[in-house]
Protein backbone atom coordinates (compact mmCIF):
# COMPACT_ATOMS: atom_id res chain seq x y z
CA UNK A 1 0.00 0.00 0.00
CA UNK A 2 2.89 2.33 -0.69
CA UNK A 3 0.65 4.73 -2.62
CA UNK A 4 -1.46 5.35 0.49
CA UNK A 5 1.52 6.77 2.38
CA UNK A 6 1.70 9.73 0.01
CA UNK A 7 -1.52 11.39 1.10
CA UNK A 8 -1.38 15.15 0.91
CA UNK A 9 -2.40 17.24 3.90
CA UNK A 10 -3.94 19.86 1.62
CA UNK A 11 -6.83 17.64 0.51
CA UNK A 12 -10.37 18.39 1.54
CA UNK A 13 -11.48 15.70 4.00
CA UNK A 14 -15.07 14.43 4.06
CA UNK A 15 -16.94 11.84 6.10
CA UNK A 16 -19.17 10.78 3.26
CA UNK A 17 -18.58 10.07 -0.41
CA UNK A 18 -21.75 11.93 -1.28
CA UNK A 19 -20.34 15.25 0.03
CA UNK A 20 -16.94 15.03 -1.66
CA UNK A 21 -16.08 17.97 -3.88
CA UNK A 22 -14.08 17.69 -7.05
CA UNK A 23 -11.13 19.88 -6.17
CA UNK A 24 -8.74 17.34 -7.69
CA UNK A 25 -8.40 15.78 -11.10
CA UNK A 26 -10.07 18.66 -12.96
CA UNK A 27 -9.16 19.41 -16.57
CA UNK A 28 -9.87 22.87 -17.97
CA UNK A 29 -10.56 21.42 -21.41
CA UNK A 30 -11.91 18.07 -20.26
CA UNK A 31 -15.20 16.29 -20.93
CA UNK A 32 -18.48 17.72 -19.65
CA UNK A 33 -21.16 15.60 -17.97
CA UNK A 34 -23.05 15.31 -21.25
CA UNK A 35 -20.03 14.43 -23.41
CA UNK A 36 -19.00 11.84 -20.82
CA UNK A 37 -22.48 10.32 -21.05
CA UNK A 38 -22.15 10.29 -24.83
CA UNK A 39 -18.84 8.41 -24.56
CA UNK A 40 -20.42 5.85 -22.23
CA UNK A 41 -23.34 5.32 -24.62
CA UNK A 42 -20.95 5.12 -27.55
CA UNK A 43 -19.02 2.35 -25.83
CA UNK A 44 -22.04 0.31 -24.71
CA UNK A 45 -24.63 0.61 -27.47
CA UNK A 46 -24.02 -1.12 -30.79
CA UNK A 47 -23.22 -4.80 -31.01
CA UNK A 48 -25.12 -5.57 -27.81
CA UNK A 49 -28.43 -4.21 -29.05
CA UNK A 50 -28.31 -6.43 -32.14
CA UNK A 51 -28.09 -9.55 -29.96
CA UNK A 52 -30.89 -8.71 -27.50
CA UNK A 53 -33.82 -10.13 -29.54
CA UNK A 54 -31.91 -13.42 -29.75
CA UNK A 55 -31.16 -13.23 -26.02
CA UNK A 56 -34.89 -13.09 -25.29
CA UNK A 57 -35.21 -16.52 -26.94
CA UNK A 58 -33.40 -17.88 -23.90
CA UNK A 59 -35.35 -15.93 -21.28
CA UNK A 60 -38.78 -15.30 -22.76
CA UNK A 61 -40.51 -12.04 -21.91
CA UNK A 62 -38.96 -12.14 -18.44
CA UNK A 63 -35.86 -11.00 -20.30
CA UNK A 64 -37.42 -7.53 -20.50
CA UNK A 65 -37.31 -7.29 -16.71
CA UNK A 66 -33.81 -8.77 -16.77
CA UNK A 67 -32.72 -6.00 -19.14
CA UNK A 68 -34.12 -3.32 -16.84
CA UNK A 69 -32.57 -4.95 -13.76
CA UNK A 70 -29.16 -5.24 -15.43
CA UNK A 71 -29.35 -1.60 -16.50
CA UNK A 72 -30.20 -0.41 -12.97
CA UNK A 73 -27.53 -2.55 -11.31
CA UNK A 74 -24.94 -1.60 -13.92
CA UNK A 75 -25.71 2.09 -13.44
CA UNK A 76 -25.39 1.70 -9.67
CA UNK A 77 -22.07 -0.15 -9.85
CA UNK A 78 -20.84 2.39 -12.41
CA UNK A 79 -21.56 5.12 -9.87
CA UNK A 80 -19.74 3.09 -7.19
CA UNK A 81 -16.75 2.94 -9.49
CA UNK A 82 -16.89 6.72 -9.85
CA UNK A 83 -16.96 7.11 -6.07
CA UNK A 84 -13.98 4.77 -5.78
CA UNK A 85 -11.93 6.94 -8.14
CA UNK A 86 -12.91 10.09 -6.24
CA UNK A 87 -11.71 8.47 -3.00
CA UNK A 88 -8.45 7.38 -4.61
CA UNK A 89 -7.76 10.87 -5.99
CA UNK A 90 -8.39 12.44 -2.59
CA UNK A 91 -6.18 10.01 -0.71
CA UNK A 92 -3.25 9.47 -3.05
CA UNK A 93 -1.08 12.28 -4.36
CA UNK A 94 0.21 10.07 -7.20
CA UNK A 95 -3.26 9.84 -8.75
CA UNK A 96 -4.26 13.51 -8.63
CA UNK A 97 -2.98 14.06 -12.16
CA UNK A 98 -4.24 12.37 -15.32
CA UNK A 99 -3.22 8.71 -15.49
CA UNK A 100 -3.74 6.10 -18.18
CA UNK A 101 -4.94 3.22 -16.00
CA UNK A 102 -7.51 4.40 -13.40
CA UNK A 103 -9.44 1.12 -12.89
CA UNK A 104 -6.31 -0.91 -12.05
CA UNK A 105 -5.16 2.00 -9.86
CA UNK A 106 -8.34 1.61 -7.80
CA UNK A 107 -7.51 -2.07 -7.37
CA UNK A 108 -3.94 -1.15 -6.36
CA UNK A 109 -5.10 1.20 -3.61
CA UNK A 110 -7.76 -1.22 -2.36
CA UNK A 111 -5.90 -4.55 -2.44
CA UNK A 112 -2.35 -3.82 -3.50
CA UNK A 113 -0.66 -5.56 -6.41
CA UNK A 114 -3.19 -8.41 -6.44
CA UNK A 115 -6.13 -6.03 -6.87
CA UNK A 116 -4.32 -4.24 -9.64
CA UNK A 117 -3.54 -7.45 -11.53
CA UNK A 118 -7.11 -8.76 -11.28
CA UNK A 119 -8.56 -5.49 -12.57
CA UNK A 120 -5.94 -5.03 -15.26
CA UNK A 121 -6.16 -8.55 -16.67
CA UNK A 122 -9.97 -8.50 -16.63
CA UNK A 123 -10.12 -5.14 -18.40
CA UNK A 124 -7.64 -6.10 -21.06
CA UNK A 125 -9.38 -9.41 -21.78
CA UNK A 126 -12.80 -7.74 -21.88
CA UNK A 127 -11.91 -4.79 -24.08
CA UNK A 128 -9.78 -6.94 -26.35
CA UNK A 129 -12.72 -9.33 -26.72
CA UNK A 130 -15.16 -6.49 -27.35
CA UNK A 131 -12.83 -5.19 -30.06
CA UNK A 132 -12.91 -8.63 -31.66
CA UNK A 133 -16.73 -8.63 -31.54
CA UNK A 134 -16.87 -5.17 -33.12
CA UNK A 135 -14.49 -6.24 -35.90
CA UNK A 136 -16.52 -9.39 -36.60
CA UNK A 137 -19.83 -7.55 -36.71
CA UNK A 138 -18.58 -4.66 -38.85
CA UNK A 139 -17.15 -7.15 -41.35
CA UNK A 140 -20.39 -9.13 -41.32
CA UNK A 141 -22.43 -6.01 -42.08
CA UNK A 142 -20.16 -4.89 -44.91
CA UNK A 143 -20.22 -8.36 -46.44
CA UNK A 144 -24.03 -8.28 -46.37
CA UNK A 145 -24.16 -4.82 -47.96
CA UNK A 146 -21.78 -5.72 -50.78
CA UNK A 147 -23.51 -9.06 -51.37
CA UNK A 148 -26.86 -7.30 -51.76
CA UNK A 149 -25.17 -5.02 -54.30
CA UNK A 150 -24.24 -8.09 -56.38
CA UNK A 151 -20.65 -8.78 -55.29
CA UNK A 152 -19.75 -11.53 -52.82
CA UNK A 153 -16.39 -11.24 -51.02
CA UNK A 154 -15.33 -13.79 -48.40
CA UNK A 155 -16.02 -12.82 -44.79
CA UNK A 156 -12.41 -13.68 -43.94
CA UNK A 157 -11.16 -11.07 -46.42
CA UNK A 158 -13.58 -8.50 -45.03
CA UNK A 159 -11.96 -8.92 -41.62
CA UNK A 160 -8.61 -7.93 -43.12
CA UNK A 161 -10.10 -4.97 -45.01
CA UNK A 162 -11.91 -3.58 -41.96
CA UNK A 163 -8.90 -4.05 -39.67
CA UNK A 164 -6.76 -2.16 -42.18
CA UNK A 165 -9.26 0.72 -42.25
CA UNK A 166 -9.43 0.89 -38.45
CA UNK A 167 -5.70 0.81 -37.86
CA UNK A 168 -4.88 4.51 -38.56
CA UNK A 169 -7.84 5.71 -36.46
CA UNK A 170 -6.57 3.66 -33.51
CA UNK A 171 -3.49 5.89 -33.29
CA UNK A 172 -5.50 8.74 -31.69
CA UNK A 173 -4.64 9.55 -28.06
CA UNK A 174 -7.23 9.61 -25.24
CA UNK A 175 -11.04 10.06 -25.28
CA UNK A 176 -10.85 13.85 -25.10
CA UNK A 177 -8.90 13.77 -28.38
CA UNK A 178 -11.70 12.09 -30.33
CA UNK A 179 -15.04 13.15 -28.80
CA UNK A 180 -16.62 13.59 -32.28
CA UNK A 181 -16.19 9.83 -32.75
CA UNK A 182 -18.33 9.19 -29.66
CA UNK A 183 -21.01 11.57 -30.91
CA UNK A 184 -21.02 9.81 -34.28
CA UNK A 185 -21.40 6.44 -32.56
CA UNK A 186 -24.40 7.54 -30.50
CA UNK A 187 -26.22 9.32 -33.33
CA UNK A 188 -25.76 6.44 -35.76
CA UNK A 189 -26.95 3.84 -33.24
CA UNK A 190 -29.99 5.89 -32.19
CA UNK A 191 -31.18 6.22 -35.79
CA UNK A 192 -30.41 2.54 -36.45
CA UNK A 193 -32.51 1.41 -33.46
CA UNK A 194 -35.50 3.40 -34.73
CA UNK A 195 -35.16 1.84 -38.19
CA UNK A 196 -34.79 -1.68 -36.75
CA UNK A 197 -38.05 -1.27 -34.84
CA UNK A 198 -39.78 0.13 -37.94
CA UNK A 199 -38.52 -2.72 -40.13
CA UNK A 200 -39.54 -5.33 -37.54
CA UNK A 201 -43.06 -3.88 -37.37
CA UNK A 202 -43.22 -3.93 -41.18
CA UNK A 203 -42.09 -7.58 -41.23
CA UNK A 204 -44.67 -8.41 -38.56
CA UNK A 205 -47.49 -7.50 -40.95
CA UNK A 206 -46.45 -10.01 -43.61
CA UNK A 207 -44.80 -12.85 -41.64
CA UNK A 208 -46.58 -15.78 -40.03
CA UNK A 209 -47.08 -15.54 -36.25
CA UNK A 210 -43.79 -16.20 -34.47
CA UNK A 211 -43.12 -19.28 -32.37
CA UNK A 212 -41.21 -19.12 -29.11
CA UNK A 213 -38.85 -21.75 -27.63
CA UNK A 214 -39.03 -23.22 -24.14
CA UNK A 215 -36.70 -21.68 -21.58
CA UNK A 216 -33.76 -23.93 -20.65
CA UNK A 217 -30.87 -23.56 -18.20
CA UNK A 218 -28.14 -23.23 -20.81
CA UNK A 219 -30.03 -20.81 -23.05
CA UNK A 220 -31.14 -18.66 -20.09
CA UNK A 221 -27.62 -18.08 -18.82
CA UNK A 222 -26.28 -17.63 -22.34
CA UNK A 223 -28.84 -14.84 -22.60
CA UNK A 224 -27.70 -13.42 -19.26
CA UNK A 225 -24.16 -13.17 -20.61
CA UNK A 226 -25.42 -11.37 -23.70
CA UNK A 227 -27.41 -8.88 -21.62
CA UNK A 228 -24.47 -8.26 -19.28
CA UNK A 229 -22.30 -7.58 -22.31
CA UNK A 230 -24.84 -5.07 -23.61
CA UNK A 231 -24.75 -3.03 -20.39
CA UNK A 232 -21.14 -3.54 -19.34
CA UNK A 233 -19.23 -0.37 -20.14
CA UNK A 234 -17.36 -0.39 -16.83
CA UNK A 235 -13.84 -1.16 -18.12
CA UNK A 236 -13.66 2.25 -19.82
CA UNK A 237 -15.72 4.27 -17.31
CA UNK A 238 -12.79 5.40 -15.11
CA UNK A 239 -10.87 6.41 -18.24
CA UNK A 240 -13.72 8.75 -19.16
CA UNK A 241 -13.89 10.07 -15.59
CA UNK A 242 -10.21 11.02 -15.55
CA UNK A 243 -10.79 13.13 -18.67
CA UNK A 244 -13.71 15.07 -17.14
CA UNK A 245 -13.67 18.75 -16.20
CA UNK A 246 -15.42 17.81 -12.95
CA UNK A 247 -14.79 14.11 -12.17
CA UNK A 248 -16.99 14.21 -9.06
CA UNK A 249 -20.04 14.58 -11.36
CA UNK A 250 -19.36 11.26 -13.04
CA UNK A 251 -22.43 9.68 -11.41
CA UNK A 252 -24.72 12.09 -13.27
CA UNK A 253 -23.11 11.15 -16.57
CA UNK A 254 -23.61 7.44 -15.89
CA UNK A 255 -27.28 7.95 -14.98
CA UNK A 256 -27.90 9.84 -18.23
CA UNK A 257 -25.99 7.23 -20.25
CA UNK A 258 -27.98 4.25 -18.95
CA UNK A 259 -31.31 6.03 -19.46
CA UNK A 260 -30.35 6.62 -23.11
CA UNK A 261 -29.12 3.04 -23.59
CA UNK A 262 -32.26 1.54 -22.07
CA UNK A 263 -34.44 3.66 -24.36
CA UNK A 264 -32.48 2.26 -27.32
CA UNK A 265 -32.43 -1.37 -26.17
CA UNK A 266 -35.95 -2.16 -24.99
CA UNK A 267 -37.89 -1.35 -28.21
CA UNK A 268 -35.42 -3.34 -30.33
CA UNK A 269 -35.43 -6.33 -27.96
CA UNK A 270 -39.22 -6.44 -27.58
CA UNK A 271 -40.09 -5.88 -31.26
CA UNK A 272 -37.39 -8.22 -32.52
CA UNK A 273 -38.38 -11.08 -30.23
CA UNK A 274 -42.14 -10.58 -30.70
CA UNK A 275 -41.95 -10.53 -34.51
CA UNK A 276 -39.25 -13.14 -35.21
CA UNK A 277 -39.37 -15.45 -32.16
CA UNK A 278 -37.21 -18.54 -32.66
CA UNK A 279 -36.01 -17.17 -36.02
CA UNK A 280 -34.14 -14.26 -34.39
CA UNK A 281 -30.43 -14.65 -35.19
CA UNK A 282 -27.53 -13.62 -32.94
CA UNK A 283 -27.33 -10.55 -35.18
CA UNK A 284 -30.94 -9.45 -35.69
CA UNK A 285 -30.00 -7.80 -38.99
CA UNK A 286 -29.55 -11.28 -40.50
CA UNK A 287 -33.22 -12.02 -39.76
CA UNK A 288 -34.76 -8.80 -41.09
CA UNK A 289 -36.22 -8.61 -44.60
CA UNK A 290 -33.82 -7.04 -47.13
CA UNK A 291 -34.62 -3.57 -48.35
CA UNK A 292 -33.62 0.09 -48.05
CA UNK A 293 -34.24 0.25 -44.29
CA UNK A 294 -32.02 -2.76 -43.62
CA UNK A 295 -29.22 -1.36 -45.78
CA UNK A 296 -29.34 2.00 -43.99
CA UNK A 297 -29.24 0.22 -40.61
CA UNK A 298 -26.23 -1.84 -41.68
CA UNK A 299 -24.39 1.32 -42.71
CA UNK A 300 -25.26 3.10 -39.45
CA UNK A 301 -24.35 0.17 -37.21
CA UNK A 302 -21.09 -0.29 -39.09
CA UNK A 303 -20.33 3.40 -38.54
CA UNK A 304 -20.98 2.90 -34.83
CA UNK A 305 -18.75 -0.16 -34.73
CA UNK A 306 -15.90 1.75 -36.36
CA UNK A 307 -16.30 4.50 -33.76
CA UNK A 308 -16.85 2.08 -30.87
CA UNK A 309 -13.80 0.01 -31.82
CA UNK A 310 -11.57 3.02 -31.19
CA UNK A 311 -13.26 3.84 -27.87
CA UNK A 312 -13.03 0.33 -26.36
CA UNK A 313 -9.54 -0.39 -27.66
CA UNK A 314 -8.11 2.85 -26.24
CA UNK A 315 -7.79 1.89 -22.53
CA UNK A 316 -5.92 -1.32 -23.41
CA UNK A 317 -3.53 0.64 -25.59
CA UNK A 318 -2.99 3.30 -22.92
CA UNK A 319 -2.06 0.76 -20.25
CA UNK A 320 0.25 -1.11 -22.63
CA UNK A 321 1.97 2.16 -23.51
CA UNK A 322 2.34 3.02 -19.82
CA UNK A 323 4.03 -0.32 -19.14
CA UNK A 324 6.40 0.25 -22.07
CA UNK A 325 7.13 3.87 -20.97
CA UNK A 326 5.82 5.33 -24.23
CA UNK A 327 5.24 9.15 -24.04
CA UNK A 328 1.65 10.45 -23.99
CA UNK A 329 2.15 12.70 -27.03
CA UNK A 330 1.78 11.29 -30.56
CA UNK A 331 4.91 9.37 -31.56
CA UNK A 332 6.12 6.54 -33.76
CA UNK A 333 6.27 4.03 -30.89
CA UNK A 334 2.55 4.55 -30.26
CA UNK A 335 1.85 3.84 -33.93
CA UNK A 336 3.80 0.57 -33.78
CA UNK A 337 2.17 -0.66 -30.55
CA UNK A 338 -1.38 0.12 -31.66
CA UNK A 339 -0.82 -1.41 -35.08
CA UNK A 340 0.37 -4.61 -33.40
CA UNK A 341 -2.73 -4.51 -31.18
CA UNK A 342 -5.05 -4.29 -34.21
CA UNK A 343 -3.15 -7.18 -35.81
CA UNK A 344 -3.69 -9.34 -32.70
CA UNK A 345 -7.41 -8.50 -32.69
CA UNK A 346 -7.57 -9.49 -36.36
CA UNK A 347 -5.83 -12.81 -35.63
CA UNK A 348 -8.36 -13.75 -32.93
CA UNK A 349 -11.27 -12.74 -35.18
CA UNK A 350 -9.90 -14.90 -38.00
CA UNK A 351 -9.42 -17.78 -35.53
CA UNK A 352 -12.90 -17.73 -33.94
CA UNK A 353 -15.26 -15.97 -36.39
CA UNK A 354 -18.40 -16.26 -34.21
CA UNK A 355 -20.00 -13.02 -33.08
CA UNK A 356 -22.66 -14.44 -30.72
CA UNK A 357 -20.53 -17.04 -28.97
CA UNK A 358 -17.68 -14.66 -28.13
CA UNK A 359 -20.14 -11.98 -27.00
CA UNK A 360 -21.85 -14.34 -24.52
CA UNK A 361 -18.54 -15.65 -23.18
CA UNK A 362 -17.15 -12.17 -22.51
CA UNK A 363 -20.44 -11.00 -21.02
CA UNK A 364 -20.66 -13.92 -18.61
CA UNK A 365 -17.05 -13.87 -17.47
CA UNK A 366 -14.89 -10.76 -17.36
CA UNK A 367 -17.70 -8.26 -18.03
CA UNK A 368 -19.64 -9.66 -15.06
CA UNK A 369 -16.51 -9.46 -12.92
CA UNK A 370 -15.81 -5.83 -13.86
CA UNK A 371 -19.42 -4.63 -13.75
CA UNK A 372 -21.00 -6.50 -10.84
CA UNK A 373 -18.27 -7.88 -8.59
CA UNK A 374 -15.20 -5.63 -8.46
CA UNK A 375 -16.95 -2.21 -8.07
CA UNK A 376 -18.77 -3.13 -4.82
CA UNK A 377 -15.73 -5.06 -3.53
CA UNK A 378 -13.39 -2.11 -4.14
CA UNK A 379 -15.90 0.39 -2.76
CA UNK A 380 -16.48 -1.47 0.51
CA UNK A 381 -12.75 -2.04 0.95
CA UNK A 382 -11.82 1.62 0.34
CA UNK A 383 -14.51 2.83 2.74
CA UNK A 384 -13.33 0.43 5.47
CA UNK A 385 -9.66 1.49 5.26
CA UNK A 386 -8.18 3.71 7.97
CA UNK A 387 -5.42 6.28 7.55
CA UNK A 388 -4.76 10.01 7.43
CA UNK A 389 -8.30 10.77 6.32
CA UNK A 390 -11.82 10.71 7.78
CA UNK A 391 -13.37 7.26 7.75
CA UNK A 392 -16.29 6.84 5.36
CA UNK A 393 -19.38 5.24 6.90
CA UNK A 394 -21.36 3.03 4.53
CA UNK A 395 -25.07 2.71 5.46
CA UNK A 396 -26.33 -0.81 6.20
CA UNK A 397 -28.72 -0.85 3.23
CA UNK A 398 -25.83 0.06 0.90
CA UNK A 399 -23.66 -2.74 2.32
CA UNK A 400 -26.50 -5.24 1.83
CA UNK A 401 -27.05 -4.06 -1.75
CA UNK A 402 -23.34 -4.42 -2.55
CA UNK A 403 -23.15 -7.93 -1.09
CA UNK A 404 -26.30 -9.06 -2.92
CA UNK A 405 -24.96 -7.71 -6.23
CA UNK A 406 -21.67 -9.56 -5.69
CA UNK A 407 -23.36 -12.88 -4.89
CA UNK A 408 -25.75 -12.69 -7.85
CA UNK A 409 -22.87 -11.64 -10.11
CA UNK A 410 -20.71 -14.59 -9.06
CA UNK A 411 -23.44 -17.23 -9.41
CA UNK A 412 -24.86 -15.91 -12.68
CA UNK A 413 -21.39 -15.21 -14.11
CA UNK A 414 -20.16 -18.77 -13.49
CA UNK A 415 -23.34 -20.30 -14.95
CA UNK A 416 -23.24 -17.98 -17.97
CA UNK A 417 -19.55 -18.65 -18.66
CA UNK A 418 -20.13 -22.41 -18.45
CA UNK A 419 -23.04 -22.20 -20.90
CA UNK A 420 -21.07 -20.02 -23.32
CA UNK A 421 -18.01 -22.29 -23.31
CA UNK A 422 -20.20 -25.36 -23.80
CA UNK A 423 -21.94 -23.68 -26.72
CA UNK A 424 -18.66 -22.50 -28.24
CA UNK A 425 -16.90 -25.89 -28.21
CA UNK A 426 -19.90 -27.86 -29.48
CA UNK A 427 -22.32 -26.25 -31.92
CA UNK A 428 -20.22 -23.21 -32.79
CA UNK A 429 -16.85 -24.73 -33.63
CA UNK A 430 -15.52 -24.28 -37.15
CA UNK A 431 -12.23 -24.04 -39.02
CA UNK A 432 -10.32 -20.73 -38.60
CA UNK A 433 -10.40 -18.32 -41.53
CA UNK A 434 -6.68 -18.52 -42.28
CA UNK A 435 -7.00 -22.28 -42.85
CA UNK A 436 -9.73 -21.77 -45.47
CA UNK A 437 -8.18 -18.80 -47.31
From TrEMBL:
Recorded GO CC terms: vacuolar membrane
Membrane-crossing residue ranges in chain numbering: 60-81, 117-137, 157-174, 181-200, 220-240, 252-275, 295-314, 335-352, 358-380, 401-421
Compartments in which it is found: Membrane
Keywords assigned: Membrane, Transmembrane, Transmembrane helix
Amino acid transporter transmembrane domain sequence ranges: 30-418
Gene3D superfamilies assigned to the protein according to its UniProt record, in alphabetical order: Amino acid/polyamine transporter I
GO molecular-function term, one example from the UniProt record: L-amino acid transmembrane transporter activity
Topology of this chain in the membrane: Multi-pass membrane protein
UniProt keyword Membrane present: yes
Name of the protein in its database record: Amino acid transporter transmembrane domain-containing protein
Organism: Candidula unifasciata
Amino acid sequence: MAGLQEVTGLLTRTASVQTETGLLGHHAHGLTVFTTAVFAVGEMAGSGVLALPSALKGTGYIGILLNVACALVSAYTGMLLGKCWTIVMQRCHDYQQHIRYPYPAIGQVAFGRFGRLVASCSINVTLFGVSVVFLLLASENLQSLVRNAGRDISFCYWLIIVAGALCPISWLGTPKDFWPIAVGAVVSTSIACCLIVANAMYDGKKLSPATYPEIQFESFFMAFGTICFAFGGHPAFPTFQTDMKEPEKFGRAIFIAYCIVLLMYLPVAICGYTVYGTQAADNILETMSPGPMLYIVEVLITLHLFCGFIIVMNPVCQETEELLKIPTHFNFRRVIIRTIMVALILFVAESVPHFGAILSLIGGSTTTLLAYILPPVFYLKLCSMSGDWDKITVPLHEKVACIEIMIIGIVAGVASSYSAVLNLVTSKFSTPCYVNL
